[in-house]
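Appendix B, Record 12. Input sequence as logged:
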Amino acid sequence: MAGGVAVFDYNKDGRPDIFFTNGANIATLKKDSPKYSNRLFRNEGKGVFKDVTKEAGLAGTGYDMGAAVGDYDNNGYPDLFVTGVHGRKLYHNNGDGTFADITEKAGLGGWNDPEFGPLWSVAAAWVDVNNDGLLDLFVVNYVQWDYATEHLCGFVDRFDYCSPNFYKGLPNQLYLNKGNGRFEDVSEKWGLRKHVGKGMGVGVADYDLDGRPDLFVTNDLYYNYLFHNSGSKFEEVAFDEGVALVEDGQFISGMGVDFRDIDNDGYPDITTVGLNNQTFPVWRNIQGKGFEEITHPSGIREASLRMGGFGVGFITLLGASIALMNIMLVSVTERTREVGVRKALGATPLRIRQQFVIEAIVVCVLGGIVGVLLGISLGNVLSRFVFKIDAFVMPWFWITLGMIVCIVVGLLSGYYPAHKASKLDPIESLRFE
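Logged structural output:
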């Protein structure tokens, strides 16, 4: 699975720097090669970045995945929490360009759960859940996984990622900031531990404007979670508020999430992303009294299907266009006597070129029309019978773009054969058999 990224000004020079997490040896979950190192790139200005990972102390040791930035001790310098497979790290920003690993000292080393075993942490968020002025830490955990008992999934001669349905889920975790450099695991006390899921992302916002931050967690092929903050615990209300599932009731592979106001009514809305051939749901906040899904009315559903469904026709179009040059070259050879006759009757090289270029464009446009019809038909058939969406999609933008590309490719692929035809000697052409 892909790693995470964090953009933050770690050295307070006014320029955003970039941190990337990286994996490890999949069998040992150790960074036993330099290629597995995390990376911190310091912004030098003018579009130049310098790799300062080693001097900053952020190379890492395990299979790292996510990153969350926050100044947990209020010293003015942003600190860094890194999630990973069977491990996590809290790096304290020393303010001198270096970071110190204080995971165990801070009480955040609890990645080996006595009930669920080693935890696979994917994402995290710094959030002051109790409004005491100190950032607390919410950790999103994925599934129970063990290399020694890993399933083999895929097809003959080609392995693939196994579905999350092959694995048992994990609860998420909440750590309260005690203000003395240490954190307390209050996951059970705050009502989170009983909600076992397959978390991938977390968004933070006060959706009902009661002054307390709430949490939205995406799960992989499972219900989403919406944790409402009561001040001393979280209550899971995704079904009550209408965001547990998409409108057709299907599970999607919920991953990234954004929890913010998209229509400027003062209430934060929710949007998430999933895999290809899945919807990217958008839920509008109804003034803190629940959510309504607007994926279809907003055009997001059709936009994603439009790109996927039209791809087949678009590829057909390009394939036909690429083959066109060879066809036109063969045409020049077969029509050599015709070219000789036209030149003998006074046709100029320019007229000969125009004839072949126009023919190439016409052939390409005809092939493009076939490709467009194929893309529209296949896209709407998949939409109706596979994704259960009744709306008929007519992708005018992609049709227009396809025709433009087709004309350009026809022009380019036809020019060389046309140029070759225009250079034929009329006498030799008339002698050609």
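Residues 349-385 form the longest helix (37 residues).
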